[in-house]
# Entry
Amino acid sequence: MFSLLANSLKTGIVTEATPFGQPAPFGFPLIDFARCTMCDECARACPTGAIQSTTPEPDRRRLSLSYAACIQCRECVSACPEQAVRAGAHAEVAAYTRDQLQQSAMFVADSASGGCTLQSVEVHAGPGLEESAARLRERIRARLGRSLHVRQVDAGSCNGCELEIAAASNPVYDLERFGIHMVASPRHADVLLVTGPVTRNMEIALRRTYEATPEPRIVVAVGACGCSGGIFGEATYAAVGGVDRIVPVDVYVPGCPPRPSAILNGLLVAMGRREARVRSEARGA
Amino acid sequence: MSELARLVEERLELRDGTVRELRAGELLVDARTRDLRALAKAAVTHLDARLLSIFASDERASHGRFTVQHVWWLPSLRALLRVSAGIDPAQPSFPSIAAKYPAANWFEREAMDLFGVSPQGHPNPGRVALHDDWPQGVYALRKDFADDTVIARVAGDFHPFRPVSGEGVFQVPVGPVHAGVIEPGHFRFGVAGEPVLYLQMRLFYVHKGIEKRFERLPWRHCVFLAESISGDTAVGHALAFAHAIERLASIEVPARARALRVILLELERIYNHVADIGALATDVAFTVPASRAQALREGLVRLHERLFGTRLLRGTIALGGVKTDLSDAGRQELLAHLVGLEREFDHLITTLIDAGTFTDRVDATGILTHQAARDLGIVGVAARASHVDGDLRRDLPNDAYDGLQFEVPLEDGGDVRARLMVRARETEQSFRIVRQVIDTLPATALGASLPAELPPASSALGWVEAWRGPVLHYVATDEQGRIARVKINDPSFLNWPGLIQAVPGNIVPDFPVINKSFNLSYSGNDR
# Structure
């Protein structure tokens, strides 16, 4: 008993004052569309289809990147012959819609030379961040205040996200100090923290868990699979895909798996206490 | 013909030339289905064989047949034995060996569920992988089933759990959505007050169709899929898959990469064992060591990120080698971290086993007897805690394990404490292994160059002893060199039945700590 006490005193406080903003060796990829020649190497290297190249019209080419499906494997960075794809340093990404995690660029293809010229960069479709944030805040403001009860639902995960969600409770991150409590039942919960891909065999359980959660309820989708099906894809015989295919999602936290600080950030975004950030950033920016 | 193949022929009483040594440590027998039982008996009796896998393949397009394969581990011969038999699609069945070798139980039923080949004489030929709302007669791993086929649910009253009866006897259903941050599965306890009479479980809630997905993705992308079979075993599964591909395509992995793979696999073992030991403390509400272990685990995953770029060691294994080198500064940092960790870890274990309040909860709790572990074919940590010896790092070494000095700790108790102590002692051995390898990192390239295409119509096994136990992958290619079949074996699949044996007789409140002491992967099991 005394040795336990002595050791605890000797160890001191390991909790970090702020767990946010520590640069990650690899956040998410950043594409410099101005340098892109539409050679498609990155799209071919991408194992999840997070990067896609399409030809919407005969003389138009489009390159799109979605953090929702990105597993941060870095294959696109090494595949790009123009060094147009770089490693972002920022990994605490959260968004209110899947579309906000998407960026794309349109190119004009010159049929004579085969070259492509950048025409426009489209950051995202759908509602803007501020509009989404205001809408979410309106829903939660009156009831949830500064305390959030969270029920975690593994709807098909590989358990990587569970490891990092569990780590958010460890003494270093200590999510309870932010007023966030992990609870044992959806009936006690304000928020469902759902990982995916939602499997056929978890679809009914996820629906019932959602229905058992009292209103107003918030759903946070965690991980590449929870946001988009990830490497397992969508609409296969065994996996439906992203959580939003089954229940409405309020906040998306991409990553494979997202680090504990990103998960914590996502929950605070859901509480309206942090601003959502949907882009990784260059090192030193 | 190899000496090893001749020896196996002799012991199995087979004709000359029936056993082929495909490549180092991998033997193949082409058998007739009707001989499967006799071969299984001979392998177990005369070669002390242990069953690692049974799986089916659909070769109707190329050979007009299904096949079923048994994979046996022959510890005394340092080899794996594949016994392969063709199945006539007109009569899709094969003789079951499950009545005699319970380890075959779920494997054979899974082959039935996903390929529609039925195990004749199976004592309990019900579904295991398919849930009840999947229709009859639809087999997802057959080649004529497209992976994006969406199958409507069948309505009805499902899954009759075995009833329990008697005064004061009732059932407690738990899951699939659990109270903690863990994976989904359904447990049904038959209880009389607190003591558990009988445990039934329903798994495969997180079946993602991974084996089918391997057949669709380009083979170079498949290493990322392998990393996501079980997130806590990213290195183990990626490495087993890489070994299978490298053996299939005769790719020679450079020496430095082989050494770094050992370090990565041991780091994965250390961080998981540390976390599990802390979780055992959590489950008996001993919070000081629980918090300490969580902090140690966090320190380790941050070290991983600094050294290799990711916290859970994803993206470190490449086909043909490794992705990230370890610099001299990185080596020094790793060694320095281990010095501090070893001291803290020692203190953690002492704190736990010196506390009567802790040992009272873990001693003689959740006993898996030696006999049960042997009969069920339990592997890995859970087997060694019931004094069943075996570790692929020593018995079938690959990468840089051959020649390293380390012990394979065994315990007799088969209880929660024994599984804790195996983890503790293995962690110490991992420190020892990392130190040996890190001192002699060869100066070679980090990866071999890969062929443009895989060899056609070939198959190979790849394996590692991951932290939970042996991980075994089987990869086969079709006539065009595309991946035709991948069979994934996570040790959890063999070990879940061990939990069913270990729980009855204990009280319901001890279930979490017993379950955690096995800490099996749902995702690795369900795939």
In short: Chain B has a mean pLDDT of 94. Chain B touches chain A through 57 residues (CB under 8 Å).
